[in-house]
Amino acid sequence: MPRLLLFYRLMVRPLLQEQARAALTVFAMALGVAVVLAIDLAGSAATGSFRSSMEAFAGDNDLEVTASGGVPEDVVGTLVSLPYSIRISPRLENYAVIVGSKKSLPLIGLDFVGEGESFAQMDSARGVAPQAQENPQELLEHFGDNDSIWVGTSLGYNVGARVQLLINDQVREYTVRSVYPDSNGAESAIVMDIAAAQHALARYGRVDRILLKVPNAPGLEEWQQRLRSALPVGVEIHPQGTGTNENRKMLAAFRWNLRLLSYVSLVVGAFLIYNTISVSVVRRRPEIGIVRAQGASRGAILIAFVGEAGCFGLAGALIGLPLGRFMATGAVKLMSATVESLYVSSRPGAIELSFTSVLLALAIGVGIAVASAYSPAREAALVSPVEAMGRGRREYDVNVLKGRDLWLALALGLAAAAASRAPAIGGKPLFGYVAAILLVVASALAIPAFVHALTMFSSKLLGKLFGVEAMLASRSLAGSLRRTSVLVGALSTAIAMMTAVGIMVGSFRETVAVWMEDRLPADLYLRPGGSAATDRHPTISLGLAETIEKLPGVAAVERLRAYEIFYQEMPATLASVDLDVLRAEPNSEYFSGRPREQVLAELRDSNAVVVSEPFTYKHGVKTGDFITLPLGEKQVTFRIADVYYDYSSERGSVLMDRKTMLRYLPDPAPSNLAIYVAPEAKLETVRTEIEQATAGHHVLLFSNRDIRVEAIRIFDRTFAITYALEAVAVIVAVMGIAGALLALVIDRRRELGLLRFLGGATGQIRKLILVEAGLLGLLANLAGLALGFALSLVLIYVINKQSFGWTIRFHWPMEILVAALTVVYAATVLAGLYPAEVAVRLNPLEVVHEE
Amino acid sequence: MLILSLQNVSKDYLTDGQRIPALSNLSLGVKRGEFVALVGRSGCGKSTLLNLAGAMDFPTAGQVLVDGISTSSLKDAGMTQLRREKVGFIFQSFQLLHTLTVFENVELPLLLAGKPNAREAARERLAWVQLGDLGHRYPHQLSGGQMQRAAIARALIHSPSILLADEPTGNLDTTTGNVILELLRRLAREQNTATIMATHSVEAAALADTVVRLRDGKIEGITRR
User: Chain B contact for A849, CB < 8 A?
Assistant: First the structure.
């Protein structure tokens, strides 16, 4: 208790006397904690607790039977005929859009007839309880109807309600026969009888999955082996929910990268805590001497300063907790949209601020604060009482060893270069992260020499250009080299991350824009209505392509078809192109550099495919390798003819000739149409003709330009969260600058007062502080730009490549960079306004004579 | 003609809502070139008098006239201008900026005032105080006596009419202190600068033309030589 009292008197009370500065440090820390917490909570909600939306009604089944392009229906018969007591639940799975609300929901076809009794009773094993308002027998009768559906309560429909659904490119009206409780929408789906679903989807003879409930004995692996032997070769059997698990694995990299980005704010916060404690140590040097002389041990001094940092961390974490929970609400929306457009259809779960999350926030806040305070606290502990009292306020930068640190920085830079050349480990760019960390540390070590050189050599020039205040500001920064270096280090780290991610995203954006020029050769594109997602491939009615083909202004129609498949337990897209229609493109989109027609000619009538760049990285394959794909009931081996650049999805794609695909998956319905307008025809006229010809079908027609604009919109939305994270890091740094300038003003009050004695006007004092803020911003911008450039190379050529497998061409996004750096610079100068006012209000009589 | 005139000057400070008188109805005139020593115990009002004389503060009552200009009639900018033109300060603890060289410290008042040819003036003033060859050093590379000489050069850089010195030898050993006092005395005479020095030292006061003894904010006695 007496020690706590002492801690309060000697450490906490002085903080309370400088409320503005203490508040800035605490709030900066709170923002850092909040961002990490928000990304963690949002990540858990959007991806961590990922459960495929198709898992609604999966119940307690043990195994699932799947095949690329669907499982032949006769497999159900094969399974039924086996002498085992297993429950067999075939399912058709797709998506439907409620026409009024435009809400997209899983459409699940269940075998009500085959499993009628259990559905009517809705036993708990199915995962949901019944809320039917009719008797079971009547319910069964209606479920056989082609217009009967079963919906979740969260949709707000009553039994008997009529609902219009867009399925593929057709709108149909259905009657709600029953509603079920759907856990606040988490289990929400449109459920209908499998026959009705086949009718609606025009998919006959195949189901998407067959779920199996097997007896407890023998074990699941034994059952898997037994049943596999009874299935055709292309049909696979896995534990139920494998797709969900694989998707979850795929999302892990996305979540991991976002999480790392969120730590940038904390790193910046750590710099600031280090600075705050360092300032505290220097200021209280005489006090340290006094309390040491009075009997305090070195350990007590160490604990006191570490404790001070711990207080900052704890206060920051306590404020960061509700702030992070609040920020998670926005983050989860952005993350879910990205997951949906780049990865897989899913619904975000609820944001749960669990006990673990609270502990994590507290541990991060206190841990980072304590770790970053350890060095200055140790320095305080090592001061001898005589020295501390005798020499009074020692200069802050006594221990800065610029030359040695510069050599260390060079060595770390070289180590970073070496690390960036190392391969990924377990699919994760661990050495890429190491390279990035080494670069940040190298930059921090090089900054004192950089700051010293620039401030010393520029002070005369600054004096001539901006007056004596600029010269004084420059000298002052050079005079407090350690403090200045820490501040420049903090802000430049934030700026560097902003610059690096800005360059990476700008380069990616430019690469995608150029890529789309080549990838979208057709004039118009047509797809079924409803929202697009990378794992959804609704089809267009048969015959529509032929109708469009016959229109006068149409030169050709290319039919594209895509399926969702699993290759080596990872989701991928299997697509086909119509080789009879494809046109030559000016630029090669292939690794080999060969023209498109030459590459695709190899696919014609042969078991050859081209694969996307991300596919090669995910599965470790290259041109000339062979891959075996389960197609329908067959296992088919294909040769990889070439690899193409693809930025539409990171899951990986396999492209084959349409005729080859139809040989194994004989469903001719296309997923998309690419329409080429005849050279003599007018695009708008043809468009109108197509719109008239497709009346009655719910399809979306896009021009080449529309698609590009939409793609860029999705791209920008995807990276909005990264910009938000960097903005927070910069805000943290700017707040730190404000706090540090305030400390600087308080520490230099005697000097500022003296200037008033020597004829300095209040305006000059204000200008002096603002110039210091401006110089700090300038130094941080220069250092941040240099570090950011180096980091962007690591991001583009190492981390991105090893995480997602995309080749990004380097591009300077000048407009974004100039705008962002200007905003940061202006913010830094503005951060000096309050400290400048404090400096102006100092009473020179008091501050000059107080020593 | 008086370069500094304090007429019935009183100065009160408010501390925790209580009025604490620092100077009470004090009158004093100082001529150009006159060397005045203010003596008295700590808290008798020496520093307050210097602050009022140096246009650093306003009197609560009465008038302070610097070269005929009443400080009470001025605002902050006017006070700053008055200091830039008429007043130089010397402090007990030298108050040199450690980030600036001796040259840069000395020329600082001229630079703050936006005056040209600061370096030439600094060179000349440093020659006055026999520091001509140490201009490029930093304060921490100087001895205490050298630092105070640099501070004197700085105080004289703009040829002030009034030089205010607050315990200028307080941080120096006796020998060095005497050298500094001699220097101050000589420069005051040569430059015709009125010098007002607050001191506890009997030896220092002995060098002055006029010794003003202060007690409890009032003049106890004036000795002119």
Answer: yes
